[in-house]
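INTERNAL TRANSFER SHEET
From: sequence group
To: structure group
Subject: Acyl-CoA thioesterase II

Please process the attached sequence and return the structure record in the designated field. Keep the field labels unchanged so the import script can parse them.
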Amino acid sequence: MTAPKIRDVDFRDLMHLEPHGPDTYVGIVACYPWGQRLFGGQVVAQALRAAIHTVDTERRAHSLHSYFIRPGSPDEPIRFEVERLRDGRSFCTRQVVARQSAGAILNLSVSFQVAEDEADVQANSIPDTLPGPTDPSLLDYSWGSLLERKSADASDTRLGYWIRLDTELGDDPDLHLCGLAFMSDAAPSRAGRSLHPDFTNDPSDRFKFIGASLDHSLWFHRPSRADEWHWFDLKSHGLSGGRGLVSGDAITEAGVHAASFTQEVLLRRRRDEKAPEA
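Return from structure group:
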């Protein structure tokens, strides 16, 4: 099969999964700017969507934890196999394995909860001095017409991005959760490199390193719209053994702390620093 380029794909098309037997779904793939590897955030979002299909509508995902097992290929669809681990009165748990012909590419666990009327206290906010997403001084790292992304750092140690999906997603809250999961994997890589001695926070930095996502966890705190701007506030927790740990918060332009996430990244110094061809 020939996958469409990401600039020609609508996010809702990525989230449309075809049933292929009990609790099994198949999703499309797309070609990303870096070549013959899928974007991990796409696979996480699709796996979350598959899990959502097996849960009652009054339950909403509140956390997910995933391992990237091998690189996904843009040359074939992805099969998502859902296992119903538990259905309780307040919580339920699903496990999803995403597969292609080479084997499993992702293992994801998701927990869902019935809405509860309890205390709501927010601790994180956007700094008053942070440039807004339309500030012309921000560097643009967008992906065609699917994802808008602009670097916006609060300090030398608090790196960040303004990110949103460049499409109208409607009012399905689960689709916005999937969108936030997709966006959250587009944020950590620069922060993962930030403590390396060769990092200069210049766009060319990324060509100095070979990197990949190893695992990804996400906690959903409050509803938000993935087609509106979120500031992803990022912090690196160090480098060791070719791995770096990044944590972050996703906060809407209106100041709502929507989600928190962590990711461990693989980071190796490239021997040949030549930039890949466009």
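Handover comment: Residues 6-113+136-269 form a domain with the Porin fold (CATH 2.40.160.210). The chain has a mean pLDDT of 92.
Transfer complete.
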